[in-house]
Design brief:
It contains 13 helices and 20 strands. It has helices at residues 12-23, 63-71, 100-111, 113-128, 138-147, 158-173, 186-192, 204-213, 257-264, 269-276, 339-357, 383-397, 413-431; strands at 4-8, 27-31, 43-46, 49-52, 58-59, 78-79, 84-88, 91-95, 196-198, 215-217, 221-228, 231-237, 243-248, 250-254, 279-290, 301-303, 309-314, 322-327, 364-379, 401-404. The strands form five sheets. A seven-stranded mixed beta sheet has the order 8-7-16-17-18-15-19, with helices on both faces.
Length: 433
């Protein structure tokens, strides 16, 4: 008889864990507190079609994730790139991710020789060593031990920190350069070294394929986890408001660190405190459809350094009338904003964007928004040591419990997918006995 396993959380980490465990022969319950699958993928509808308000760009180096997507029937990709421009002195300076030599020359001019060479040395190591793109790697541990007494901003000049590093850390971690650390920077450099595609049909077909493989429990929140004989019990809140205790042979907690902390606290208060120390930052996202194109083919995104809107970008190469506005970084942080507050934020960002692009604002035809109070994982200093403690404490709890998520290997979808696979693989020996 197949062993029964729960995966808590249905973002990329949870999906990958659930698929892996299903392929290993387990009977899988995929438990999601929201009313739909996807977690911070942020699946929604705009103008009669699916859109993503969370992660959607898939790197060419995302080999593990692309393998999983192919397993679920998603094999078609369209090039996206990150043809972005930064605002300097009120004007746009393009950086074309598809023309790397030209982009590197611009970066060198922006940063100065010393900072450029330091960044280049780090980038070469990340390019040549796949493990350096993951949290807790030997590369990251060495950097953290040597440099994490100070934040990233203090290791580079203000020009490079503001003009190049900030757009990268805000985009991936929702954090400023003075809120992140060199020991974790390999995960960010991996993004700089990659080229990106997206799924033409979005992630909805992938999520539908997952629903065909495993049992999905939506609108179900896990309150606590406990050892129960040879198995594991989960106390959950059901969609009708009741409480139920479910028994499993193994559990993967594929949630953000703070949610895992709440679930695990009664089993290990020390582990709960440690997981709550992982840094997270909020974001608000609006995807707006216009009657006419906003962007040109050579400029598809604008990084706005000094306002609430950190980035405004076209939804796709050929969807330049659909703009995704991201409000993140120190100036864009709001907690639980009202619809009126979000509308004001979007309106202000629209006005700036059309001013920078030198166009009249077309009429809106549709808009969808999403806010997460704790959206982006920004880790912390000497993070490899924290991860060691986390893994040690989860082993001390005993039982077949494993962890996955953005805080385990890194926030990119590739690293989340890897963490889900690793968490599932840790349970496979027990469920195949």
């Amino acid at each position: 008889m197949a062993k029964r396993v729960a995966v808590v959380g249905s973002g990329i980490s949870g999906i990958s864990a659930a698929v892996r465990l299903h392929r290993a022969g387990a009977q899988v319950d995929l438990i999601e507190s929201d009313g739909m699958l996807g977690g911070r993928l942020g699946v929604s509808r705009l103008g009669g079609h699916d859109v993503m308000l969370g992660g959607k760009n898939i790197g060419r180096r995302y080999h593990v994730m692309r393998g999983m997507l192919a397993d679920l029937g998603a094999t078609d990709f369209e090039h996206f790139g990150i043809n972005t421009s930064r605002v300097k002195d009120g004007a746009l300076e393009p950086i074309d991710s598809g023309r790397r030599l030209r982009a590197l020359t611009k970066i060198a001019k922006l940063s100065g020789l010393r900072d450029f060479l330091m960044l280049a040395r780090l980038a070469v190591q990340v390019r040549n060593d796949e493990s350096a793109r993951l949290l807790g790697s030997a590369f990251g541990r060495r950097l953290g031990a040597r440099y994490d007494s100070k934040p990233l901003s203090e290791h580079f000049g203000s020009g490079l920190a503001h003009d190049l590093i900030r757009p990268v850390t805000v985009r991936m971690n929702g954090a400023e350069p003075d809120e992140v650390y060199l020991g974790n920077f390999g995960t960010n450099l991996a993004m700089l070294l990659d080229t990106f595609d997206q799924l033409p049909a979005g992630f909805q077909p992938v999520l539908e394929a997952v629903e065909e493989l495993v049992n999905v429990r939506l609108s179900t929140s896990v309150r606590r986890i406990a050892k129960a004989g040879d198995g594991i019990s989960l106390t959950v809140s059901t969609p009708t408001g009741g409480v139920e205790v479910l028994g499993y042979d193994g559990v993967v907690l594929a949630t953000p660190a703070h949610i895992a902390a709440d679930i695990l606290h009664e089993e290990s208060a020390q582990l709960g405190r440690l997981l709550r120390s992982v840094n997270y930052f909020p974001t608000t996202v609006a995807v707006v459809e216009y009657a006419e194109d906003i962007f040109r083919s050579d400029i598809r995104a604008v990084a706005m350094a000094d306002g609430p809107c950190s980035n405004a970008g076209s939804y796709g190469i050929n969807q330049r009338n659909i703009v995704r506005y991201t409000f993140s970084g120190r100036h864009g942080r709001v907690i639980s904003p009202t619809a009126e507050v979000i509308e004001t934020m979007v309106g202000d960002a629209e006005a700036l964007l059309v001013e920078y692009l030198g166009i009249d604002k077309p009429a809106r035809t549709d808009i969808v928004t999403r806010h997460w109070d704790q959206a982006y994982c920004a880790y912390g200093p000497n993070y490899a040591e924290l991860l060691e403690q986390v893994h040690s404490l989860i082993e001390q709890i005993g039982g077949n419990i494993s962890l996955a998520g953005d805080y385990i290997l890194g926030a990119s979808m590739e690293n989340c997918c890897r963490s889900g696979f690793e968490a599932a693989d840790a349970l496979v020996p027990a469920i195949t006995e």
